[in-house]
Amino acid sequence: MREVKNYQERAIKRLSIVSEMYLEENGKETIVLQSPTGSGKTFMMAKYMQKMVEESKKDICFLWISIGKGELHKQSLKSVKREVGETLECSLLEEEFFGSREVINQNEVVFVNWEKIRTKNKETGDFKNILMKDNEKVNFPNVLKNTHEVDRIIILIIDESHAGATTERAKEIRDEIINPDLTIEMSATPVLDDRHMVVEVKPTDVINEGMVKKEIIINKDIDKIVDNEIDSEQLILESMYQKREELAQKYKDQKIQVNPLVLIQIPNAAAGETKREAVEKFLKEKGITRENGKLAVYLDGDTIDKKSEELLPLNGKIEYLIFKMAIDTGWDCPRAQILVKFRETNSITFEIQTVGRILRMPEAKHYMDEELNRAFVYTNIQSIAIKKELYNPNIIKTLCAKRKEEYTPTPLASYYKNRVDYGDITRSFFTTFEHYFCQYFEIRQLSEKEIPMPEDYYENRIKLKDKGVTTDYGKNDDILGNVTIESTEVDKELEIDNEEAFIKVGISEADLEIKYDQLIRDNLNGFAPARSIPTVKQAILYVFKKYLKLESANKGIMYIQNMLVTNLDIFATILSTATDKYKIVHEMEVNNKSDEEFNENWEIEPTKNYNPETNREIPSKLSLYQPLYIELKKGEVDKLEVDFIKHIDRKTDKIEWFWKNGSEHMKTNFGIQKADKRAFQPDFIIKFKDGRIGIFDTKAGNGHKEDDNEEKFNALYQYIYQERAKGRNLIGGLVIKDKNKFKYFENIPYISYKVNKTNWKDFDDLFR
After folding, report:
1. What backbone phi and psi angles, to 5 degrees, belong to 478?
2. Residue 37's pLDDT band (boundaries 50, 70, 90)?
3. 189: number of CA atoms within 13 Å, CB side?
4. CB proximity list for 654: less than 8 A, separation 6 or greater
């Protein structure tokens, strides 16, 4: 059993005191243990549970939920059992509770995998796991109910609570099924509100007591290896190898039994296999292979936990671990000291939990040699963004809103266009790209039948050079070098993009292709990357062959890729212009393939599901859907929409209900046909108590996108006019906000509020 650090002892004591206080009050409260990555949260929680059963006079049991995929709950059980000995009975839910157990025993900890209890059948709404289902045997919800009935206190512990404890499914399981007497959440980056009692461990305390390394250094000393022959991939591998050898020697010199481990994360994409082969080839040349036990490889379908016993010993034989997936949250291998990550895009995001795997000190203490108190990252990137790790198992629309029961049928005519559109660029893009390529470089565009002359190729290359295109393809890769991150900053969101820290180096073929793909991806203007990038590449090759006589054979493709990547600003402008202008051509193609559908008796659906990551709940009394969810735009709710909702929500004497339309292109949303036959989906439908149905679309009043406003208004006006002729009592128009007043426009011809305010009426006139 390991030594308890001072900060850990203080946290354990505070947790115990607050727990006893809350259990006396029986308020079913929540305590949050907010403690940095690497501080030993599992260890502290194990000692807390041991303290509770040894000192408390209450009948207590514990339920430990590990949020995240994999076998983290099993590792948590091993870690807790190692620290508490026989004080607590430790059990796995799936092994102990298959009908033979009716209660959780006193002083027992049941470890649960969140994935195994949360999953429901989408059609029936029933839990999938047999442990959660109603059946002949005793299921787990019954076990929990029985445990409560014998007056045993259930303390729920949620490991890595930031990762999903606030989702609707989590709340359902916690509040309705588990119904704990006390909840303790633990996380480095918890989701907090005013109701939480927080027991906080300071990052500086963790560092000062030697639990974690003092700092992380990115690409340490790579500038000492750079030469004209080495590319960025080889540079990173060689630097990684030399640093590990240096650290291993330092441990030996100080007679410390630690064999430093290198974690090598390769891309998940198809390029990952190529990268793995390159890494294994490099390591083999250094005498490091799977056969001699110095290398371990865990890719798709593997979990590191399965081989933890081979990796965890401080003097373990394995020196390098190649993995593809993100390392499981909570996986702990204190001898891991170097992380290698290869470029997937121009900017790579390191998640806290991945970086956290190299933060821990092997023996929970600092050494005399400061180099051993540091962690190292080697990566061929230009920038780093460390962000909070977010695991959300309910990412697919788990928020559900229901239509009010007092709703009476309100049929409307709705328009939907079934677009045969995969959002992809097709071969018709060739002509568009050719046009804007020639226009930018002032090259005469050839007809399909024209054959260029040899002198044309020469003149065209001169024109590219005159526009600033360079063919100097030496050290054309910029990567960060010798950048330091303090360990106290790891649990915060931060970005590192320092041009002064850039080191020039040659680019590998694989990384050149990644940069080339990213250049295209960044300039697609909304077109689907997977289906569009190959076509854009073909268009580029077609134009370069036609006007510059550059072909893909015999390394020609690398020459072309180098030209675009080296002259990124120029070709980004051409690509962006071409894809943007191509939208008109693409729209015409789609329209020719699309089918129209008019539903004369469209109704608002009884329920609708929303994605918790892209929607926010807004309080509302009059919303037809309860609760009301509003789609986020750039991470925020639309202020105009929210202000409008608050305004109409006060009209309880005049409005029966209102409904917020969705923005997705789907039949269940309300649509109106525009002049170009595309669908327009107005923002709000309002049911007035006097029988009127109002259709309104909120717009900015500063003259922004007035062509689009006019087009939508004309479509709405025509729709209302036609539906009135059928006997429907409709009103509607565009709505803007000027200072604290809402104005609406309802008559043709459309006149912008910015041009003439007198044509716009006070919205409140509709309620008089």
Report:
1. -105, 125
2. confident
3. 21
4. 688, 689, 690, 767
